[in-house]
From TrEMBL:
Organism of derivation: Chryseobacterium carnipullorum
Protein name (database record): YciI-like protein
UniProt keywords, alphabetically: Signal
Keyword Ion transport applies: no
InterPro entries given in the database record: Dimeric_a/b-barrel, YCII
Length: 156
């Protein structure tokens, strides 16, 4: 009786192990893609993260605040279309640092990132302030943006 159970179980374990090994096979290196993305030998590159924080300006007028947020979102889209921003999004929980959201800019220059973040109407109005940090991540990060429109039905 035990043999009847162990044989199929052994076959199942062997099959799963083989499938797991196949999954671990490394993708073929693509030099053309790596070069086009600015990847180093590890497939990584320098970016700049901008952490948006709560600014000093408080706007009680909901219509004015709505216009600023619409401008904020439009500006994010423009920067993304220009290849300057590769990640943008709000934080879902309040935090002690008053971080509201973040951008990952496709530059290693803190000065360039600061120029780009200053184009944001909510930053200009003082609703958001910011902190800037150098960051090292996958050079393939910008590739996800081209698929985002395929998975979203609308804009926030």
């Amino acid at each position: 009786m035990r043999l009847k159970i162990y044989v199929p179980l052994s076959v199942l374990i062997a099959t799963l192990s083989f499938a797991q090994e196949k999954k671990k096979e490394k993708a073929k290196f693509n030099q053309e893609l790596a070069t086009s993305l600015g990847a180093d030998q590890y497939g990584m590159k320098a970016y700049t993260i901008v952490m948006l924080t709560t600014g000093a300006t408080k706007i009680e007028d909901k219509a004015k605040m709505g216009d600023l947020m619409k401008g904020h979102m439009t500006n994010i889209g423009k920067l993304a279309d220009e290849g300057k921003i590769v990640v943008a999004g709000p934080f879902l929980e309040k935090n002690k640092e008053n971080y509201r959201g973040m951008f990952i800019f496709n530059t290693k220059s803190k000065e360039e990132a600061e120029q780009w973040v200053k184009t944001d109407p909510a930053v200009q109005a003082g609703v958001f302030s910011y902190e800037i940090f150098p960051w090292y991540g996958s050079a393939a990060l910008p590739l996800y943006l081209k698929h985002h429109d395929e998975i979203s039905k609308g804009n926030p």
